[in-house]
């Protein structure tokens, strides 16, 4: 066999090994290096494989691919000289003979509000925020959705969601329906608590959410914590300083409130909006039909869920009771122990449907699994004192 044929056979064997590793290896591996004794510098091509799926990545300068995945894999092929060839391997998840899974807005001429039916998946091969699209209908450069806002009002919502409405038999909210809810993450970006944005630089949450001397991150504008396939991206900010209520007692969850001051402000957008505080109420009257909004934080889940969407729970404040110690609000609703909405805001609307924060989810009682909220209204002087001292308002 000639040297040229030996080189070709060796190359094909190594490429097959590499593709096998891609199919069954870690999806986070960004590249694989193949080393040959001799190799001509000719481009290589691959075909899509059915069991590889990645997140969205940026467009290539020469050819645009609207794949769903992490950064495209590239194979570094090294010769016995100093030449290194970058060979991109673009992989889309197929869902038919000439169809691929893409975001809804990347398929065809869809421009209206997207309807997501959680109880009836459109195609089990694709993520629930994707659609199975003919290759010829995949947009090369989908237009970004406009989210900037000049509205300075607090507590406003996006009724039935921003650009996307969810149909479900459960209590899931639609995308950015309550744009003031934020997730609190640890340094590894694992969600540990909820919070509520009370300004573009300050988050109100439970004091028990902030371990001392830990790097914390606040994420705003997110909806499903287990995917980045939302129609517009979220924003992350580092916590610069945490202010814990001076009367906080961890063992009894008394005065379980804290302020997180951010290193930089969140932008003013339609999917990131501060909630209203009681001092903003003026002559308005709050409705007694309130809701608690946030994510279920699965700290010790044996089988993590496929999605973790912002939930809402109705709370009738006329049926709540208040603690004599710190004024904490106990709901009459009993929940399953598998729910953990620590730090979630209890919010009530006024007659103009602006939402005001009145409580922060502190803990659940042991006997009836009833959520107890730290009383924000009673502690508004403490909140305002520190915000004015730190120049945040």
Description:
- Helix content is 8%, strand content 27%.
- The termini are far apart.
- The chain folds into 3 domains: 3-89, no CATH class; 99-137, no CATH class; 164-389, Trypsin-like serine proteases (Thrombin, subunit H).
- It has helices at 3-24, 380-389; strands at residues 31-35, 73-78, 84-89, 99-103, 114-117, 130-134, 164-167, 181-185, 191-199, 202-205, 217-220, 235-244, 258-262, 289-294, 311-316, 321-322, 329-330, 345-349, 355-364, 371-375.
- It contains 2 helices and 20 strands.
- A 7-stranded antiparallel beta sheet has the order 15-14-18-19-20-17-16, with no helix packed on it. Strands 8-9-10-13-12-11 form a 6-stranded antiparallel β-barrel.
- The chain has 393 residues and is mainly beta.
Query: Helix/strand-derived class?
Result: mainly beta
In angstroms, what is the radius of gyration? 25 Å
**How do the helices and strands follow one another from N- to C-terminus?**
HEEEEEEEEEEEEEEEEEEEEH
Number of strands: 20
The fraction of residues assigned to DSSP E strands is 25-35%
Q: Estimate the global geometry from the Cα principal axes.
A: globular
Roughly how many Å apart are the termini? 79 Å
**Any guess at the CATH architecture of the largest domain?**
Beta Barrel
Name of the CATH class of the largest domain: Mainly Beta
Strand order of the largest sheet: 15-14-18-19-20-17-16
| DSSP summary: helix tally | 2
What profile does the largest beta sheet have? 7 strands, antiparallel
Approximately how much helix is present in the residues?
A: under 10%
Q: By CATH's scheme, which homologous superfamily of the largest domain applies?
A: Trypsin-like serine proteases
- The domain tally reads 3
Rounded mean pLDDT score: 79
Instruction: Report the CATH topology name of the largest domain.
Output: Thrombin, subunit H
Poorly predicted residue ranges: 8-90
């Amino acid at each position: 066999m000639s040297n040229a044929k030996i080189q070709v056979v060796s190359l094909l064997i190594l490429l097959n090994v590499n593709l096998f590793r891609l199919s069954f290896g870690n999806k986070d591996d960004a590249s694989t290096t193949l080393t040959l004794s001799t190799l001509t510098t000719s481009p290589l091509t691959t075909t899509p494989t059915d069991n590889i799926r990645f997140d969205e990545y940026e467009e290539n300068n020469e050819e645009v691919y609207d794949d769903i995945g992490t950064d495209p894999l590239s194979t570094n092929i090294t010769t016995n000289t100093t030449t290194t060839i970058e060979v991109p391997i673009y992989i889309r998840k197929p869902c038919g003979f000439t169809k691929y899974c893409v975001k809804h807005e990347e398929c065809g001429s869809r421009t209206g509000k997207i309807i997501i039916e959680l109880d009836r998946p459109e195609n089990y091969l694709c993520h629930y925020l994707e659609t199975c699209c003919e290759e010829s209908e995949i947009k090369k450069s989908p237009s970004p959705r406009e989210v900037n806002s000049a509205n300075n009002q607090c507590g406003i919502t996006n009724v039935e969601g921003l650009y996307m409405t969810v149909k479900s038999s459960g209590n899931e909210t639609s995308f950015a329906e309550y744009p003031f809810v934020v997730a609190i993450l640890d340094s590894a970006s694992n969600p540990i608590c909820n919070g509520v944005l009370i300004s573009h630089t300050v988050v109100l949450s439970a004091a028990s959410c902030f371990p001392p001397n830990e790097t914390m991150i606040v994420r705003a504008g997110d909806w499903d914590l287990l995917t980045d396939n939302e129609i517009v991206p979220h924003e992350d900010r580092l916590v610069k300083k945490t202010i814990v209520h001076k009367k906080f007692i961890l063992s009894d969850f008394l005065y379980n409130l804290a302020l997180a001051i951010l290193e930089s402000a969140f932008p003013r957008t339609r999917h990131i909006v501060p909630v209203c505080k009681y001092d903003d109420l003026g002559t308005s009257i709050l409705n007694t039909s309130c809701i608690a909004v946030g994510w279920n934080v699965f700290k010790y889940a044996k089988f993590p869920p496929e999605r973790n969407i912002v939930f809402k729970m109705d709370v009738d404040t006329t049926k709540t009771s208040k603690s004599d110690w710190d004024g904490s609000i106990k709901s009459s609703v009993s929940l399953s122990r598998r729910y953990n909405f620590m730090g979630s805001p209890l919010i009530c609307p006024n007659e103009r449907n602006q939402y005001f924060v009145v409580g922060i989810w502190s803990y659940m009682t042991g006997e009836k699994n009833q959520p107890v909220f730290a009383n924000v209204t009673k502690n508004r002087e403490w909140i305002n004192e520190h915000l004015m001292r730190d120049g945040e308002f």
